[in-house]
Amino acid sequence: MVLIPQRSASQDKGINATKPPASKPVSGPPLPIPVARHAGPPTLTPTQLAPAKCFEQDQDSQWNKYLFRPGELAWFNRGNAWGLCVILKRTLTRDHQNHDRAKYLVQPLSHPLHHPPARIIESEDGLRPWLAWSPPSPTHPGLASTPNLTYASIDWKGLSSGRFGHGDAEVDGSIFAAKAVDDSFTLFEPLANNTVTTGERIYNGLYLGGEKLWTGEPVRLRLGSGQDIMVVHAIIERLKPNSTSTSSASILLAGDIYRFSTLQLQPGVEPPDNRHLPIRLRQDMEYRNRATIPTKRTLSYWKLVQAGMRVPATDVKGRWYESSTLLPILKGAADFSRDLQRGEVGDAGQWMNARGDCNNAPGRMGARHVDRLDAFGRSIPLGTRISRGLDGSPEDAQFPSEVPAAPAGVTVEPAEARGDAMQGVELDE
Questions:
Q1: pLDDT in tens, the chain (429 residues)
Q2: φ, ψ dihedrals at 156, nearest 5°
Q3: Where are the alpha helices (DSSP H) in 100-232?
Q4: What pairing do the DSSP bridges indicate for beta strands 367-368 and 184-194?
Q5: Cα–chain-centroid distance for residue 119?
Q6: Alpha-carbon distance 225 to 212, whole Å?
Q7: What distance, in Å, lies between the first and last C-alpha atoms of the chain?
């Protein structure tokens, strides 16, 4: 946490006059009385970014490299349908134009009695962030009409025998599994244990719902304008006083809060220097300004509004995504290109849900899991491993030579964005 010192009020000393002798009175106007002048609001100082502490964190800090991360929940294209999966591995390949292209190994989610095989996704066009769409209602009428069901409480054998009516067990298993993951969190890579002095432990990363967050990167906040972001500098587990129990601990994020701001382009008018921001934020803003400057005559930047703040993890909507990389996927290349020519490059966060929305529990921290795999439970096969990428062994990062194609599922049709969230994705039976 950065402490911003308050600037003391300054005084204008005026004229340093001395009292004249009584026998020689001074003629003319009276001397000015010194007036105290108060300084303006203190200048906010951004927190300095720390270097990445592992190879995978460094990979995720780079612009336009990987959109998805191992251990994350995502939607994947199954050919003529979309399903839900966990990202297991990723790597870079070269396309026909010799450009880097991300490739992923994913495990589809399902009910505990059957698991489809893993699948290789050759392009990020075949994936969507978990929060880009909303999960639909279950396909089985008996599940849809029964409130408060969870993946763990459902009688899956009874479902397979027709107890809940007709439907797709695999689809419903993936829906309930995804909701359980959204209602979970896992801290990883501990950095410091100060429980004796401050009652706090510091971590480098956090799985929050379906997403993987690192220190040193931006996240979307529920606070302020609803579109504010925080550049996270610390992930903190704070124990209750005189307690060593992690079950009652609070999870906090410490960092600087920024707000998207726009200036009319005028000679001599420059936005604040944003060199202290993560490279992904800077590169994305440069991309967006290249579109808006010639068409809208506006210049945008991230304005620091609060420095050294702490917020509960429940105030985090989710990861921040670059408009320059995600919107072409969500909108489609043709529509994005048309908007780009008009200088209409909006914020990708307006197309995204927030963590907790699918469970109608935006302020709930959810279940804590020591290991990320535990959050997926029986929705994935026993023995499934989530790759540690460049921080793991070379064998851990290798892709299988052949992965059977997953069976086609049911059609998913994303609805139009409304407000700052995509509304209910429909599954057609």
A1: 333 334 333 333 333 333 333 333 434 444 444 444 444 456 789 999 999 999 999 999 999 999 999 999 999 998 888 999 999 999 999 888 888 899 999 999 999 999 999 999 999 999 999 999 999 999 999 999 999 999 999 999 999 999 999 999 999 999 999 999 999 999 999 999 888 788 999 999 999 999 999 999 999 999 887 889 999 999 999 998 888 888 889 999 999 999 999 988 888 777 777 888 999 999 999 999 999 999 999 899 999 999 999 999 999 999 999 999 999 999 999 999 999 999 888 899 999 999 999 999 988 999 999 999 999 999 999 999 999 999 999 888 889 875 644 444 433 333 333 333 323 333 333
A2: -70, -35
A3: 141-144, 156-160, 169-182
A4: parallel
A5: 25
A6: 24
A7: 52
DSSP assignment of 67-133, as one string?
A: SS-TT-EEEEE-SSSEEEEEEEEEEEEE-TTS-EEEEEEEEE---TT--PPPEEE-SGGGEEEGGGS
* Reported pTM: 0.84
Instruction: Provide the 10 A C-beta neighbour count for residue 256.
Output: 25
Spatial CB neighbours of 266, under 8 Å, sequence gap ≥ 6: none
Residue type, 380: I
Residue in the block written with tokens 């504010």: 228
Structure tokens given for 84: 């839900």
b/e map of 78-105 (b: 16 or more CB within 10 Å)?
Answer: beebbbbbbbbbbeeeeeeeeeeebbbb
415 φ/ψ angles, rounded to the nearest 5 degrees: -85, 175
The Cα–Cα gap between 313 and 184 comes to: 12
Place of tokens 């970014």: 49
Is residue 64 within 8 Å of 322, Cβ to Cβ? yes
CB 298 within 8 A of CB 285: no
Residue owning tokens 């967006």: 288
Residue 340: both structure tokens together: 């780009």
Q: Is 381 exposed, middle or buried (0-12, 13-18, 19+ CB in 10 A)?
A: middle
Q: 323 by DSSP, 3-state: which?
A: helix
